Hints:
- The protein has 136 residues and is mainly alpha-helical.
- It has helices spanning 22-43, 52-74, 78-82, 97-108, 111-114, 123-128, and strands spanning 85-89, 130-134.
- 53% of the residues lie in helices and 7% in strands.
- A two-stranded antiparallel sheet has the order 1-2.
- The longest helix has 23 residues, at 52-74.
- The two termini are 30 Å apart.
Amino acid sequence: MSSGPSTRPAFPAEGPGSIASLGRRLIAVAIDWGACLLITYGLIANLTELSEVGRSFVPLLVFFVENLVMVAFGGSTFGHRLLGMQVIPVARPHISVLQSAIRAALICLVIPAVIFDRTGRGLHDLAAGTALVRTR
């Protein structure tokens, strides 16, 4: 099997196993962000020791950790699961913690997550060697 830029994984056009649509992705991110805000302001109530700028980054840190842990060990975040999606590795049997960390960090930067290739995979998935696919 040859490797290189012309080698692309094949995904079905529709249904389970197909690349998740932009709409599903956006709703899932909104669900995950909302959950992270609830965790930040509901459970981590004592943020008074941080500066205002520091407090503004806490939800992003919680979002990063949520993505890292849930994708590495469960294959999906809260939002992914609710909308019938899963992150899968493209060239390995399982997602590694490093792949999950790369993916989570690039999602937090936003721009790599909103630029897609011809297959519909975002730059964050391309860099991590993963794909977000539908499960139903």
